[in-house]
Design a protein that fits this description.
It is built from four helices and no strands. It starts with a helix and ends with a helix.
């Protein structure tokens, strides 16, 4: 298995499956709804549409795209720490997304 394939398997597993595991373990009664909310935070990748090229497999998203900036990540931490339940779940999803994208930076 090539390194590129392994990187993609890990990346998309962390984006899709790991939030499901988090939802199931910590929000057992409402895990499906929480998983959907966590998955919906992937919409943060809309900022990739403003980059040239839109997708660059060798680019680190953290610090490059405006919704992946350190200022934005600070806001996501605040959402997670100080929001109501739904806002905290959204903040969690955004932070999980940033952690996933951050680990990609080590592959490049």
């Amino acid at each position: 298995m090539s390194l590129f394939v392994l990187k993609n398997i890990i990346h998309y597993s962390l984006h899709l499956l790991f939030p499901g595991l988090i939802a199931f373990v910590f929000f057992r009664k409402e895990w499906k709804m929480v998983w959907i909310i966590l998955l919906s935070t992937m919409l943060v990748d809309v900022d990739h549409l403003f980059a040239e090229p839109i997708f660059d497999p060798n680019r680190c998203s953290i610090g490059f795209h405006f919704l992946h900036s350190y200022y934005a990540i600070t806001a996501y931490v605040l959402l997670f720490l100080f929001g109501n339940k739904i806002i905290r779940i959204i903040g969690l999803g955004l932070l999980l997304h940033m952690i996933t994208d951050f680990q990609d930076c080590f592959w490049t």
